[in-house]
Amino acid sequence: MYQEIYNFLNECEQNESIKNISFGIVNENEVLYQMNKKPYQIDQPRIMFSITKSFTGLAIGMLLDDGLINLDDKVSKYFKDYFPKILNENLEKMTIRHLLSMSSGLKYENFKDALVDDDFIKTFFSREFVNKPGSKYLYSTRTSHILSALVRITTGKTLQVFLDERLFKPLEITNYFWEETPEGNSYGGSGLAITHDAMAKLGILLLNDGVYKGKRIVSKAFLDEATKSQVIKQDSVGTEASKSRGISYGYQFHIVNENEYAADGMFGQVIYVFKDLKIAIILTSQTTDFVKIYALIQKHFRNFTLSNDINKDQLDLYVKTLTYEKESSNVVFKHDLTFKLDKNSLKVNSVRVNKDFIEFTHDDESVDRLNLNERIGYLRFIRTINYERQKVFLTVLASSEDKLVIELTHLESPFISQFIFEKRESESIFRFEPIITFYLDKFEQPIRNH
């Protein structure tokens, strides 16, 4: 077992398109092995992006188990008030099953719209539905969010409150958070942040067909349907990616083949389940090529055994060499500069920098200060749709009397960003460089020197 883990981790390290943060392997009873790279902490909740969808899907399974819904119920039964005045035939035919299988008939998905949307439900139903429901796959975070809204409509509870009672508490998951959309629902397609340990517990639940420590959480009947092919990803057929990722989708799970399926999220968050081997692979990442990471998981674990060619101590010694921590330079920057910023993606209206700290004043006038002689700080930054104060790890990449380069590793997400300050002869420059992120655009702001 440890040899297989070593081989997998080592090959990941040799691949520049794979940047794992944590790794784990579980069977149906326990965690067999796990590791985590500094400066990240294994008990720190991090945004899971689209793994959220699989949690949302499980909630729908629980509603089905409770007899509150039928998968062939028309969506109009629950959301008629949100439908446009001129009804679309495809929209009228849409069922809960179509939402679960990403085959609603929706024409397109624009993920960035979420940043400016004030009602996710209304916006979804105002979109074009050009395909007959069930006939075509279209991956859509907004579609999953409608399932979150369905939970609230049928139970009177947000998805977070519902799953806290039905899933998180039974699995002893307490350290998590869930973003809300403007209309007050838990963000059903992307907003959940959990720890590596919580991901492992979900893996154990799935390997036990919906049972955790003897308690039934969701029915085996639902999981059997959720983890088999419900729709073909028509655009994946015949592609190179299909060799490792498959061409099928279930109910909020990606189906690789009849024995393997996965929950995954942007930048390389993965729960990969081997039904026949009774193991699941858990990964979090800064950024990862899904085709390559799936191929490596399959290469190293499809023939998994508990036999050991190396011992655990040898593997642990290797793992201790894996880190994202960088040495931080001494600050010799000699200026005290304040930049008044134009409207920007950071939602920051001014930045002050000197040899001791960087101070950010946000659009809402809240202030965050990062001390340059401390490695850990807090900064308001985007999660998936909301800007919230989050833990960061600070590295001074470079410092001279006239230039300062700071890198922030955002510990509650995969994001990495850089802030550059430079005093020139006639002007001073502030530059924001997103290294790993989405949504946020780089920008530069000069000020004239007096």
TrEMBL record:
GO terms for molecular function: serine-type D-Ala-D-Ala carboxypeptidase activity. Coiled coil: none annotated. Residues 17-289 form the Beta-lactamase-related domain. InterPro entries: Beta-lactam-related, Beta-lactam/transpept-like, Diverse_Enzym_Activities. It is an enzyme of class 3 (hydrolase). Keywords: Carboxypeptidase, Hydrolase, Protease. SUPFAM superfamilies: beta-lactamase/transpeptidase-like. Its EC number is 3.4.16.4. This is D-alanyl-D-alanine carboxypeptidase.
